[in-house]
Amino acid sequence: MAGGTWGRGAHGIVRPCRAPSRPCLPTLRRYLLDRMTILTERDAPTPDGINPARARRVVRALYTGPALTAADLSAPLLTLPDDAKGGSALPGAVPLAGIPATVARWAELGIAGVKAFAYGHDRDGRATGALAPGNRMVATIAAVKDIAPDTAVTTEVCGCSWTDHGQCVLRTDEGGIDLDATYQLMADMAVQHADAGADVVSPTAMLDGSIRVVRQALDAAGHRDVGVNPNLAIHTTLYGPFKTLMNTDPRAGHRRGLQLEPGRADRDTITQARRWITEGADSLTLQPVMTAVDVLVRLRDDQRVPIVAYSTSGEWAALQALGTSGMVEYLTMLKRAGADQVLTFAAEAAAQYLEAGRA
Ligand SMILES: NCc1[nH]cc(CCC(=O)O)c1CC(=O)O
Ligand SMILES: [Zn+2]
Predict the structure, then answer these.
(1) Residue 18 placed within a domain
(2) Residue 103 sits in a domain of what CATH number?
(3) C-alpha closest to that of 124 among 156, 95, 155, 161
(4) In which band, very low, low, confident or very high, does the pLDDT at 12 lie, cut at 50, 70 and 90?
(5) If residue 193 lies in a helix (H) or strand (E), which one and from where to where?
(6) Cα(344)–Cα(353) distance, integer angstroms
(7) Which of 76, 131, 209, 256 has an alpha carbon within 20 to 30 A of 100's alpha carbon?
(8) Average of pLDDT values for 194-213?
(9) CB neighbourhood size of 124 (10 A)
(10) How far apart are CA 155 and CA 234, in angstroms?
C-alpha cells in the first residue's frame, strides 16, 4: 500500500493514509468495520470444533426453528366414481363411500384441511355436470363436513373435470375461449361449493378476471367469509398421475396458454399473484413446488397472504424413493421456504411419522 492508503499493520494498528498522526476517513471506516466483524462472527474454527450454539441438546432445542406439524399439512381428496377399482394409484383417491373413513383418519392425525377434487360426470361442452344439483363435488363437501366439521375444505373450481374436451375453460363454436360463459361457470361453481359448506374455493383455470368474478359472486350470495385461493399453475409433466386418474388431460392440445411458462415462472408468477390479489384473492396456491422452490421463495418475499404449496401427484410419485423420513424433510423444507400450508399426497404418511416421533 504505497503512500499509505488504508489497512491494519502487523499488530492491528491503523496505518495512516498520509498524515502519520491522523488516519484518513476510509482507513477509520475500514478499521471500524473490521472490529465489528470480529465482535459479531467467529472468523476461524474453534480449536476443539465445538460450537456452543449447537453442542448441547437443550441449547439446540433453545435455538431450533419451527418444526413441521400435522397442522401444516393438507391432503388432496380425489373423489372417484363408485365403481372405481380398488387399490388407487394415489393416496386420498377414493369413491364417495370411502370418504368418512379416510377423512376421519386424517382429522384424528391433526391434518388441517383437504382439497377436494371430483371425478366429473355428465361431461359435455357446457360442463353441465359441474352445476348439477348434488353432483359429486357437492356430495364430497357434504361428506367431509359431516364426518369432520373442523377440517378446512378447499374445492377446485375448474372446468376440466366436467367438459367433454377436457379444457379448463368453455369454448366458443370457433374453438376460442368463451369468456363470459367461463366466468359464469366459475362463479356458479364457487357459489354451489360454498352453499355446500366449502371454506375456500380454488379456481384453477388461470383466466384473468375470473377471480374478481368469483369473489363478487360469493359476496352477492352471502359468502363473504369463504376464501378465494387462485392457483399459480406452472406448466409441468408433474400433474401426470392426477390427469390420468381423473381423466382431465385435454383431448386435444394442452393448457399452456393458461398456465405459467416454466422458463419465466420466477417473474410471471409474481405478476400473476399481484393481479389476483388486486382481483380479490385472499390466499394463493403454487403448483408444482418440487421444481419451483425458487418461485416459492420469491413469491413469499413478494406476498404476505397465506401461500399453499401444492406438491403435485407427479412429485409424490417421484419422491417415493425418499421414504417417509426423507419426505418429511422435503415437506419441512417447503415450510421453511415460505409455505403457510403444504398440500401433499404424503400428508397421512407424514403425519403418522410425526406422531410416532412425538411419542
Ligand atoms: N386443472 C386441473 C388440475 N388441478 C390440479 C391438477 C394437478 C394436480 C396434481 O398433479 O396433483 C390439475 C391438472 C391439470 O390441470 O393439468
Ligand atoms: Zn382445469
Answers:
(1) no
(2) 3.20.20.70
(3) 161
(4) very low
(5) helix 179-196
(6) 14
(7) 131
(8) 97
(9) 13
(10) 19
Task: Indicate whether 260 belongs to any domain.
Answer: yes
Q: Is the ipTM of this complex over 0.95?
A: yes
What's the pLDDT at 344?
Answer: 98
Query: Is residue 127's pLDDT more than 80?
Result: yes
Span from the CA of 49 to the centroid of ligand 2 (angstroms)? 54
Q: Is 168 in the pocket of ligand 1 (CB under 6 A)?
A: yes
Could you tell me which residues are beta bridge partners of residue 78? 93, 117
d(CA 315, CA 64): 28
Asked whether residue 240 is assigned to any structural domain, the reply reads yes
Phi–psi pair at 153, nearest 5 degrees? -110, 115
Mean pLDDT value across residues 313-318? 97
Q: Is there a domain that residue 173 lies in? A: yes
What is the pLDDT confidence band of residue 1, given thresholds at 50, 70 and 90?
Answer: very low
Q: C-alpha grid cell for residue 289?
A: 413446488
State if residue 156 touches ligand 1 by the CB under 6 angstroms criterion: yes
CB of 210 closer than 6 angstroms to any ligand 1 atom: no
> Residue 272 is part of which domain span?
77-358
Query: Per residue in 22-35, pLDDT tens?
Result: 657 777 777 777 66
Q: How many domains would you assign to the chain?
A: 1
187 and 214 Cβ atoms separated by less than 8 Å: yes
Query: What distance in angstroms lies between residue 182's CA and the mean position of ligand 2's atoms?
Result: 12
DSSP conformational letter for 332: H
Q: How far is the CA of 36 from the centre of ligand 1 (A)?
A: 52
Judge contact between 318 and 289, C-beta under 8 A: no
- Report pTM: 0.88
User: What residues flank ion ligand 2 with Cβ within 5 A?
Assistant: 158, 160, 168, 204
Report the 3 state secondary structure along 265-305: HHHHHHHHHHHHHHHCCCCEEEECCCCCHHHHHHHHHHCCC
Mean pLDDT, residues 68-85 taken together: 95
